[in-house]
Amino acid sequence: LVGDKITTIRLSTLNGNPESVIRTDDLFDAQKLVFGKYSYHSILTSTDDVPHAFGLQIPMSPFPDDPTRNFGLPANEGIQITLDEAADVNQDFDNYVYDLTVEGLDSSDKPNPLGHIKYMQNIFTSGAVNSINDTTIGPAQRLLGVYAFQTTSYDDLAAAAANDVTGIRELQITFSESIAARFKPSRSWSMKNVQTVATFAAAAAVINVLDDGRFWADFGIQNDNASLGINIAGIGNNTKVKCVAGVASEATRIMPIVLV
Q1: How far apart, in whole angstroms, are the C-alpha atoms of residue 58 and residue 67?
Q2: pTM above 0.90, yes or no
């Protein structure tokens, strides 16, 4: 359902057209892993004409539950939200209907926000094993974390497989090509922020991500002060996320989340 109907969401602001781009299925899972939000989606059925639905939130503040924190898109800077619909090749979909709700604070309450979230996206097919693909951050204040997708996750490994033959072998944060930090997808294993619910199960069960290949490397997106994440002010154009391939010719996505 998610990603088969709406493939990509683009947010245009005075800073870019679009400024933020993120795939719908990645945003759906990011709500769980980054913000701890379980997104509604209806139970799938093959019965004809039964409506299917899902909900998505696009937080512009690192603290979507706390309007007292002075973050978010400033007044009069948002322009347009664009939804890319999937091609209905088999004519499975009768129609699309969506509700869009924009929520915010009066500019008199928060006249000078400290920044807002920008969602970036680099989609590529990896080269040979140990090849490196670069994602340049560009102008931003803070690097809040890196959300990534690898087609081959640890859960996909066959019996007797080496433990580092996942799609992403390593991620590196570099400043002017100098490695400041390096880490493996396993860094995120102890950081999953997924709620336990029983709505769609006979017994309580953890509602996992759509694919175990998605993971979130948190650099302090919700630190309890104004200094969120890694400071890259003035050096964003020289800041990169380098992805070291663990599997050749594999669909991979690197999605830094920054504060601008």
Answers
A1: 15
A2: no
- What residues contact 21, with CB distance under 8 A and at least 6 apart? 8, 9, 10, 11, 119, 120, 121
Look up residue 235 and give its two tokens: 């050096």
Token pair 């997106």: residue: 221
Which residues, other chains included, contact 251 with Cβ-Cβ below 8 Å and sequence gap of 6+? Answer: 123, 125, 149, 151, 167
Q: Any bridge partners for residue 173, and if so which?
A: 181, 241
Supply the pLDDT for residue 95.
78
Instruction: Please name the helix (run of DSSP H) or strand (run of DSSP E) that holds residue 127, with its range, or none.
Output: none
- Residues 240/120, Cβ–Cβ less than 8 Å: no
Q: Which helix (H) or strand (E) holds 124?
A: strand 122-125
Residue 196: pLDDT band (50, 70, 90) is low
| CB 119 within 8 Å of CB 137 | no
Strand order in the sheet with 239-245: 132-136, 239-245, 168-175, 178-183
Q: Which single residue is written with the structure tokens 């995120």? A: 188
Amino acid letter, 73: L
Counting Cα atoms < 13 Å in the Cβ hemisphere of 228 gives: 24
pLDDT classification of 127: cutoffs 50, 70, 90: very high
pLDDT at 200: 47
Give the closest residue to 241 by CA, choosing from 226, 250, 223, 229. 229
